[in-house]
# Entry
Amino acid sequence: FGVDLSLATLFQAPTIAAVAELIHAERGPVPGQSAVAAGPETTLRRDADVGPQPKRTWSALVPVRVSGDDIPFFCVHGAGGNVLNFRDLATNLPDSRPFYGLQARGSDGSHLPHESIATMASDYLAEIRAVQPAGPYLVGGYSGGGIVAVEMARQLAEQGEDTDLVVLLDTFHPDQPQRPGDSKSEKVRSHVVLARERGLSYVGNVLSNRLKHWAFRLRAARLKLRTKLGLTLPLPLREIVMVEAFLKAAANHETPQYDGPVVLFTAAERAHIFDHLSPGLGWERYLSDLQIEKIPGNHDSLVRKPNVRVLADKLEAELAGTVERRAVAAR
# Structure
């Protein structure tokens, strides 16, 4: 149909009929025919009838569940930009807890990603405050999204608003200590030893991996150029641009000290290459009120069934506990 919808569309339009309505809204009726009179096969314009389309405005806020009387929980995307992996988490929280995801600008393939964490946080807060004008707020983020959530809480504090809790879902601080054996000289020595042991086959594998790496970089550069030229990216290729842009923004972000309450849910299963990291995944230096909880599963599966049930129970206990803590503080 020549219509490009973000993955988050599946939250607001979970049925075929609802998706059809969105497509109809994007393309409009066939010229000369009213939408009422048109049948289901003729309500969408043909490609030949479609002229230049205006660029759609971008909205980061994705309402996953808007009903409920509790304080809403706003959760930021990971480096890939989309929020579909929040579905299981949202549905396992109580019905009384409104849940909003925040998808990254650019995940529709038509807009440039944010270049800084601070700007990203500021734009997300503008949309959040349109839904919830005043605090207290409950914000969080999955993976890299936790970096944005901390920055959002910091900006809210500057604006005189309270954030009752920041939730980090297996978020690594971007400034991590170097892994032992990761220096360039040690890597070179390791390659030399392995080349002597395994011969030309090892050298061939190393060269092949390097070529794949540079091919990926070249592909990412071309995709970035397409985005700058205003060309829509095919859905399977968007994550390359999104991840690269997010990692660059995170690497350039200077994390300030934050003194509000933060809970970090870490995955119980961790690859051995992360053995050198601290229990708080590097956040201890920046967060004075940090609580750490382990969740079954790895970085991907802690937000999926069956592990997400454990995560949802612990998360809701923390979110609900903020009401009691606020009541105690008010006495």
